[in-house]
TrEMBL record:
SUPFAM superfamilies: Actin-like ATPase domain (SSF53067). It comes from Aureibaculum marinum. It catalyses: L-threonylcarbamoyladenylate + adenosine(37) in tRNA = N(6)-L-threonylcarbamoyladenosine(37) in tRNA + AMP + H(+). Residues 28-317 form the Gcp-like domain. The lineage of its organism: Bacteria, Pseudomonadati, Bacteroidota, Flavobacteriia, Flavobacteriales. CDD domains: ASKHA_NBD_TsaD_bac (cd24133). It holds the Pfam family TsaD. This is tRNA N6-adenosine threonylcarbamoyltransferase.
Length: 342
């Protein structure tokens, strides 16, 4: 067993459709292995039953690969961290069962990690390609299932000050892409075509919310659907003839909704250190406007390294490391949960 200043954590992430295993030495990532599941694209979305079966097939080979890449033996590990939720129940169970068995067999601590907290703490991975935000900071956490503005006071004290009341921003991108006839997952494709289009070509309404920091995207999705239906009636080739402009306009609308809410959050909290996290933070337009906000509004922006934005086990490992230092261990009675809050 390593001493406190030399800690090896094996982390497992299985909340959705990718099986991730990472090994960290203190706050540095030795390896971050992800097994993707190709099967879902033919269904236009993630099929939970198929996802959990694929996790069962992937988890042992991925753990083996991680240990090999990190060039360490399992007996050197100090703790096992795993995603306890939120996510797809069947997928979470595969990761949590394996983590429990491994911690029991190696007689080392077990650490359950909140997936959303992990997206935020990915900023604290020691990597030359990203900088760590100081406390307190605000984090816009945007993914396929979540859209939140979180105020972070320290590694374990987080408060959600704004969140979506319906669709998440990732769903807004993917559902818009589906309306345009783009394959799943369509969010990255909207980003790709938007680069070539005019963001002011078409305008869409921005839904209002009762809490000024909350988000709503379902009205926008409906507005896009009606807009496309109306124009296709007049010109059946409307989408393919104007795809770049449509994508640029959708992306501009979504990004400006996010920025408007962030500006309000900064005004309310007086915190000007702004981070982004989650899969949608890989979007090039969101990264660009957040960078521009540094000069425009005097913010300091924190943009994670691309591989730490998507669901990955390195972010589970960094939470595991901080919890290990704090001796926040779980017993074998811990259960995974599809929906959990901070």
């Amino acid at each position: 067993m390593g001493s406190n200043n030399s800690t090896y954590i094996l982390a497992i992430e299985s909340s959705c459709d990718d099986t991730g295993v990472a090994i960290l030495h203190n706050d540095k990532v030795l390896c971050n292995v992800v097994a993707n599941q190709e099967i879902h694209s033919q269904y236009g979305g993630v099929v939970p039953e198929l996802a959990s079966r694929a996790h069962q097939q992937n988890i042992v080979p991925v753990v083996h690969q991680a240990l090999k890449q990190a060039n360490i033996d399992k007996t050197q590990l100090n703790a096992i961290a795993f995603t306890k939720g939120p996510g797809l129940m069947g997928s979470l169970l595969v990761g949590s069962s394996f983590a429990k068995s491994m911690s029991l067999a190696l007689e080392i601590p077990l650490i359950g990690v909140n997936h959303m907290q992990a997206h935020i703490l990915a900023h604290f991975i020691n990597d030359k390609n990203q900088k760590k935000p100081p406390f307190p900071f605000l984090c816009l956490t945007i993914s396929g299932g979540h859209t939140q503005i979180v105020k972070i006071k320290d590694h374990f004290t987080m408060e959600v000050i704004g969140e979506t009341i319906d669709d998440a921003v990732g769903e807004a991108f993917d559902k818009s892409a589906k309306i345009l006839g783009l394959p799943y997952p369509g969010g990255p494709l909207i980003d790709k075509y938007a680069q070539l289009g005019n963001p002011n070509a078409y305008s869409f309404t921005k839904p209002k919310t009762k809490n000024p920091l909350d988000f709503s995207f379902s009205g926008l999705k409906t507005a896009i659907l009606y807009f496309i239906q109306k124009n296709i009636k007049e010109n059946p080739h409307f989408v393919e003839e104007n795809l770049n402009d449509i994508c640029a306009s959708i992306q501009y609308t979504i990004t400006s909704i996010l920025m408007e809410k962030l500006k309000k959050a900064v005004k309310q909290t007086q915190i000007k250190h702004i981070a982004i996290a989650g899969g949608v933070s890989a979007n090039s337009e969101i990264r660009k406007v957040l960078k521009e906000a540094e000069n425009k509004y005097g913010w300091t922006s924190y943009i994670p390294k691309f591989e730490y934005t998507m669901d990955n086990a390195a972010m589970i490992g960094i939470v595991g490391y901080y919890k290990f230092l704090d001796k926040q261990f779980d017993d074998l009675g811990i259960t995974a949960s599809a929906r959990i809050k901070f």
